[in-house]
Amino acid sequence: MFEKILIANRGEIACRIIRTCRRMGIRTVAVYSEADAGALHVQLADEACCIGKSAPAESYLRIGNVLDAAKKHDAQAIHPGYGFLSENAEFARRCSQSGIVFIGPSAEAIEQMGAKDQAKCVMENAGVPVVPGYKGAEQSPEFLHAEAEKIGYPLMIKAVLGGGGKGMRVVRKQTDFPEALESARNEARNAFGDDRVLLECFVSGPRHIEFQIFGDQHGNVIHLYERDCSLQRRHQKIIEESPSPFLDEKLRSKMANAAVAAAKAVKYTGAGTVEFIVGDDRKFFFMEMNTRLQVEHPVTEMITGLDLVEWQLRIAGGEKLPLSQKDVKQNGHAIETRIYAENPETGFLPSIGTLQRLAFPGLNHNNSADNRATIRIDSGVEQGGEISIHYDPLIAKLVVHADSRKQAIRTMQTALAQSGVLGVETNLGFLQSILQHPYFDAGKMDTLFVDSNLESLLEENQDSVDWVCWGTAIACLLEDYAESETKAQESMEPCSPWNSLNNWRSGFPEPHRVQLRNQQGTETEVMIIKENNSFRILNETEGILVTVSRHGDLLDLSWNSSGLEEYGHHLLVLSHESQLLAVHEDGRTLFTRLDPLTYEQSEDVSDFRLSAPMPGNVIRVLVKAGDEVSSGQPLLVLEAMKMEHTIVAPANGIVEEVLFQPGDLVQNDAELIKFSLL
């Protein structure tokens, strides 16, 4: 077994690999860019080496820099993680030429499976069913348009070297094809340096189901069952689970056999994933093979009890597969949700900034829905860390395991209600909406689920419910008490009434007053009287008594008045400066705590400022000055994080001035278009 390996990656996957290496007694070398000098994976590794500037092209994608770091630190092997160089055949080949073990498949296997068009030919020869379509060398727009006519609409455009949803478009009618082709090619060129595409027939009721496979250097190949990855946004997975609620044993067995056959066809070694699309007619087709460890591998680990990173290390070291196929068991049900710094309300645009507050179950107070359920957090960031423009905005993966799917869903709902982030926008509320949807509960979701139900899944633009507002105000008051007590202890007269928040008055106690404003702009003054371990909320008609037990940022609430059965009993409240995030099982609300002594200048709502959500390049401008536009109409397309992001009109209005042109580089928050309401 290796004594020291280098991890050619960053973030949560680097931290995940380090965890297994520590358990196995293997020393680790982290590599980092200038932007990641203080990152968590750098802190956790035994050694670390800077490999370049912040942009991936100048650091994590520099093969020479990574190999130089491995040689400098005497690493015997390199684990590529996922993304970056993990599926780069040239990198695998140069590792071998340098006498360093590449922890993954051979360069030849990566090449065979790396290009989707070539992979489909290999699979057809192996007898694995593939989606009908065009995968040829001719790539002129006119020829591709003609091929699209032959296939029929709707169809899929996919980058030949694509992955992670980049360079992929669904085209539903002929007139949309030219623009979709241009957009897919631009994105593919920026992400992979290759704008070749293939066309596929669109499968009705599509489900994305993949099988984890492992092969060793002795010719053995097995599968570790499936993962259902049908819940996606922008063709990127956000929720994965196993077992798939769609498969029966007969179909599972057929797909598993096809996955093993696919791996054997390329003499595969190490961890890989064979991805299938399954139609509502239960016919399945090969999509692609990922020649690396997947983001969602914890789902498989939870249902099998195996450490897939350990298997990778042992196989790369020449050992045989630890288990035979008959020894691999599938136990219980696992669900993973990916927590991203992004805003679902703006088309899932990434959100960059500082993680001012970060809370997950296990880091605070864990109320599991089932004491046999397991909650796991895989993260590569910590409170105070940054979500950067340079890298994927994944904050963490939240994974649960329970005896049944019903229990796993309930455990995940509870876990999400104990998770919160302040400092950047996140998809946490969106994930809660999905977990509460009756289609998810019934297992009736396909890859179109999010797009088809987007409006209902987005957090409703409504005022916060009373009990959430009251609980948040109590959290503010508890913070005030703690701060007052600290100041009193540090003063010359700790027992002085001037250092106390006591609300005693002659006759009747004066209530504490907490003023809050929610995201909709509604302002509420909550009046509270503290009574021993309870608080009395004074509303217009009565006083409502609630007993509060505090566990870090989580409040357990016991409502002592009748008729309040619908009120929640757990509330997570995170605060930073005047910002407050209140999280409960039905959603989350962002509040601003108002200071009655501070004057706030009112905002002019007669116009809107359309600004860049992050630094990037303008690639298309779709309007000109004087144009009258409708709400939601695309105005401009920005390329950032190797993805295209469309800026749309926030309301019906008029374009006053376009401030940038195609090819221009814009900075974060730069005004793009002057816009006024009609």
From TrEMBL:
Q: Which SMART domains match?
A: Biotin_carb_C
Limits of the ATP-grasp domain: 120-317
Lipoyl-binding domain segment(s): 600-676
Q: Which UniProt keywords are given for this protein, alphabetically ordered? A: ATP-binding, Biotin, Ligase, Nucleotide-binding, Transit peptide
Write down the required cofactor(s). Answer: biotin
- Asked whether the UniProt record includes Methyltransferase among its keywords, one would answer no
One family name in Pfam for this protein = Biotin_lipoyl
The UniProt entry, under InterPro entries, shows: ATP-grasp, BC-like_N, Biotin_BS, Biotin_carboxylase_complex, Biotin_carboxylation_dom, Biotin_COase_C, Biotin_lipoyl, CPAse_ATP-bd
Q: Does the keyword Ligase apply?
A: yes
MF terms (GO), sorted A to Z: ATP binding; ligase activity; metal ion binding
Q: Domain Biotin carboxylation spans what residues?
A: 1-455
User: Could you identify this protein by its name?
Assistant: Methylcrotonoyl-CoA carboxylase
Could you tell me which species this protein originates from? Answer: SAR324 cluster bacterium
